[in-house]
Amino acid sequence: MYNVVSKTYEGPFDILLDFAKDDEIDVAGIAVLDIVENSVIRNVDEGSEFIVDAANLLYMKSVALLPKEEEKVETQEEVDAQKLLELYNKMKEVAGDLERKELRQKDVFYRDADRRTDFAEEEFKEATLYDLLLAFKSVLAYLPKEEILNISREGITVRQKINELIDYLEVNTQIAFIQFLKDQKTREHIITAFLAILEMIKLGLILCRHNVANNDIFITRKA
Amino acid sequence: MDLLFAKSIIECLLFVSDTPVEVKSIKQVLEELDEREIRKILTELQMDYETQGRPLCITEVAEGFSIVTREQYAPFIKKLFKAKVTHRLSKAALETLAIVACKQPLTKLEIESLRGVSADGVLDTLYERKLIRIVGRKEVIGRPLLYGTTKDFLQYFGLKDLTELPKLEEVNQILGSQTWQTKNGRNEEKIKEQNSQAPLL
User: Fold this and answer.
1) With CB atoms 3.0 to 4.6 Å apart as the test, which of A20, A200, B23, B93 could cross-link to A205 if both were Cys?
2) Given CB atoms, is A95 within the 8 Å cutoff of chain B?
3) What whole-number distance in Å separates Cα of residue B111 and Cα of residue B94?
4) Is the pTM of this model over 0.90?
């Protein structure tokens, strides 16, 4: 390892190069001539090392001395990225604006929608067999007592009742389950009508919708 | 129709509605009045509430009118409805919402390209809180969903309508670039046309 001596620096050559690389000293200010003149080279190894280091220094110095290239023209992508960033910042502004509005709105109260669910749209769900049975029982209980004593001879079939219901639903969009049973003349009719309804549900011809709010069951045709 | 009577009817309509009532809806009730007259009555009603120093006021919000409480009574109302206080939106949610609001309709990818992070969770939250909705699908490969804001969004922030927010065109103008487009934004015009016709879900 050998030292170089110049007006601005004295020390190992490779450390000088490191400094120059890291911009810790101004390469342009180092006189190469000084270094060459003041260096003492004792053998071939040192000589070759010196030539490499000097060449590196020369290269760095030439880069530093040459006029800088024109500012690089921004590519479309860079412009896009910049716009994107500006747009994002703008959005941040809007977000801040929204936040202030949100805070202010926290003190403004509207009528409470939750309280009014009772008046909201009627909510229907498909009636279960249990719902139907319950309604059926209520109709049976509603029958006058003496009806029970009547023994009817006419044969009423489930098929008849199915046709009856289909005919009715041809004209009307829906019928109340209880109403349909109450319209039946006798207990026998009621039971047959009920069986007809169950059969039609099984066949997928009708739908029994149960209004959760007031417990009404409606029969509608299945589309 | 007697204007005083009409005014009372409108006040009733505002009272019973838990969502802002549109002028259009009022017109359906008061057929003989035109929208300009209804607006005039609403303004009068607003003034009445103002001058009589009532604790309530009529505010124009979410493309309609609503009776709301005045801000100074908030502390007392909050005492009664302790459980009803909802969580405020996170910074990420607000930013995403701002992007959706200004640039709608747009896809998740477009939101993400602007924010630089995944928008999945945030979009779910906003959707759950009914602040954004799906307005259609973009006619590009993969037909991604397009998002837009809801009326609830307007009400949540107390906005009359979307014009209170800067539109994308305005934003672009501020940036001084008419030519700039997002990478996926080239079909924007086409999509707007399609959206105005029908929801593409």
Assistant:
1) A200
2) yes
3) 12
4) no
Nearest to A151, CA basis, from A183, A110, A186:
A186
Q: Which residues in chain A touch residue B155, judged by CB atoms under 8 angstroms apart?
A: 110
Eight-class DSSP state of B63: T
CA proximity to B153, closest of B81, B61, B27: B61
Of the candidates B28, B61, B24, B33, the one whose C-alpha atom is nearest the C-alpha of residue B46 is: B61
E strands in B17-91: 56-61, 64-69
Q: What is the pLDDT of residue B193?
A: 45
Of B78, B76, B65, B116, the C-alpha closest to B95 is: B116
Q: Closest partner residue to A87 among B68, B77, B114, by Cβ?
A: B114
Tokens encoding A165: 């219901």
Q: What ipTM was estimated for this complex?
A: 0.73
CA of B52, closest CA in chain A: separation in Å?
19
Instruction: Write out pLDDT tens, residues B116-149.
Output: 888 888 999 898 888 999 998 899 888 899 999 9
Average pLDDT, chain A: 78
Write the burial class of residue B179 (CB in 10 Å: 0-12 exposed, 13-18 middle, 19+ buried).
Answer: exposed
Q: What is the pLDDT of residue B44?
A: 94
Per residue, the 3-state secondary structure of B129-168, as one string, reads CCCEEEEEECCCCCCCEEEEECHHHHHHHCCCCHHHCCCH
Q: Name the residue with tokens 């309804």.
A: A197
Cα separation, B48 vs B56, in Å, equals: 11
Q: What pLDDT sits at residue A85?
A: 83
CA angle B81, B86, B92 (to 5 degrees): 165
B101 contact partners, CB below 8 Å, separation of at least 6: A94, A98, B149, B153, B162, B165
Q: Which of A37-41, A46-50, A119-123, B177-181 has the lowest mean pLDDT?
A: B177-181
Which residues 136-195 of chain A have a CB within 8 Å of chain B? none
Instruction: Report pLDDT for B194.
Output: 45
